Amino acid sequence: MPLARVHNIAVSLDGFATGEGQSLDTPFGHAGMRLMEWFFPTATFQGLSGDRERQEVSAASDPDDRFAAQSFEGIGAEIMGANKFGPPGWQQDPEWRGWWGEEPPFRTPTFVLTHTPKPPLEMSGGTTFHFLSATPAEALDAAFAAAGGLDVRIGGGPTMVREFLAAGLVDHLHVVQVPILLGRGVRLWDGLEGLEAGYDVDSVTTPSGVTHLTFTRR
Amino acid sequence: MPLARVHNIAVSLDGFATGEGQSLDTPFGHAGMRLMEWFFPTATFQGLSGDRERQEVSAASDPDDRFAAQSFEGIGAEIMGANKFGPPGWQQDPEWRGWWGEEPPFRTPTFVLTHTPKPPLEMSGGTTFHFLSATPAEALDAAFAAAGGLDVRIGGGPTMVREFLAAGLVDHLHVVQVPILLGRGVRLWDGLEGLEAGYDVDSVTTPSGVTHLTFTRR
User: Fold this and answer.
1) Is B31 part of a structural domain of the chain?
2) How high does pLDDT run on average in chain B?
3) Which InterPro entries match (chains A, B) (predicted)?
4) Is the pLDDT of residue A52 over 70?
5) What would the mean pLDDT of A27-45 be, rounded to a whole number?
6) Which class for A153: exposed (0-12), middle (13-18), buried (19 or more C-beta within 10 A)?
7) Structural domain tally of chain A?
């Protein structure tokens, strides 16, 4: 059975997966890039970003990379929330084509949850954005149907991940706990009392100082 | 310089250091003992509880015990919040002498923060409870004065630890992150944005599945 999987969602110690004040210039709000610093030196990120970044892959990031790379293995479709596709108000901008340029890293059908659907956007490299207004369960059905028997990535942001978790739709969850305190923003964990009961939970700390938590459905 | 130290404060993934509904029978509310399960098999806990418990020390708990034991090293006084000393309403019960029987494990002067001070209680084994209404800074002054040049333990619960952290009074903080989701209760981390900036932070995951986080003042 194909699985619904969440990968590489980073949270602060106080549980915020993005900061306050998201905008075009600050996609993570006041958190800046602090939740993703563990990710940038990994081979996986460097491979995604190609020539656009000059940062070197750090060997010390190998333990993090083992987790980061899993996000791209065996995925046939992605579902993302509206806030991952663009800054507030992108729905009113007919020119907006996502944060990722003309060749987004998804390379699969990618379903964007929004209350204002529009025609699909076919990008280079295999990504086609589909815009749909749907419940989590409906969106997952559509994504599995498009995934060709592979798994579906529940891509975030935190609000939609929380909704999929609350609906019991997530088979595998990988969270990266970053030891900073953001104080404000969007919480990942609210309203999920007892979530761990349905999962085997593993924790691994890496040299970068983050802790990788994986929840695997029993 | 003697230090103000916090040890062995356990939090759920969603940041709750105690559950909802604390009472005489449920000192951690609906959390039960789930936040402390990593602690019970340690040599440190077994040594504290003496004959009262029959649980065996588990060798697998050694990595946890290295953290647990530090709580009792070099401490000359403790400060605790009212909710650690007793269930809601203990101030109105003249017979209440704390949760720990006639020989409490503190073995030092122990300052209980309460808005209804009363005369000290001298217990067996070196613990004397002093009851005082004071700000965190005032309480810390009193505790250092009583600690004979040793460190002071900021003993919890989470509300008072958060107040001491917010006031910048904590030199060393040890938090045990337990991979469960409590959903409700008393949060440790609220209102502490940017706390990590003043500390070196370390994270270590142990075989029990918890992650020990230590914040050491720079």
Assistant:
1) yes
2) 94
3) DHFR-like_dom_sf, RibDG_C, Riboflavin_Biosynth_HTPR
4) no
5) 93
6) buried
7) 1
Nearest chain A residue to B201, by CA: A179
Cβ distance A205 to B205 less than 8 Å, yes or no, reads yes
Residue B26 belongs to some domain of the structure: yes
Which ipTM value was assigned to this complex? 0.90
Q: Is residue B96 part of a domain?
A: no
B31 pLDDT above the threshold of 90? yes
CA distance A17 to A157: 8
**Looking at residue B207, which CATH number applies to its domain?**
3.40.430.10
Instruction: For residue A121, give how far its alpha carbon lies from the nearest alpha carbon of chain B (Å).
Output: 37
CA pair distance A151, A146, nearest whole angstrom: 10
Predicted confidence (pLDDT) per residue in A112-142, tens digit: 999 999 999 999 999 999 999 999 999 999 9
* Band (B56; pLDDT cuts 50, 70, 90): confident
Chain A environment of B179 (Cβ under 8 Å): 196, 201, 203, 213
What are the residues of chain A with a beta carbon less than 8 Å away from any beta carbon of chain B?
13-15, 177, 179-184, 187, 189-196, 201-205, 209-211, 213
- B196 contact residues in A (CB cutoff 8 A): 179-181
Question: d(Cα A183, Cα A92) in Å, to the nearest integer?
Answer: 31
Q: CA-to-CA distance for B143 and B148, rounded, in angstroms?
A: 9
Asked if pLDDT for residue B55 goes beyond 70, the answer is no
Q: Would you call B183 and A193 a contact, using CB atoms and an 8 Å cutoff?
A: yes
User: Looking at the domain assignment, is residue B118 inside a domain?
Assistant: yes
User: CB under 8 Å to A123, separation ≥6 — which residues?
Assistant: A97, A98, A102, A103, A104, A129
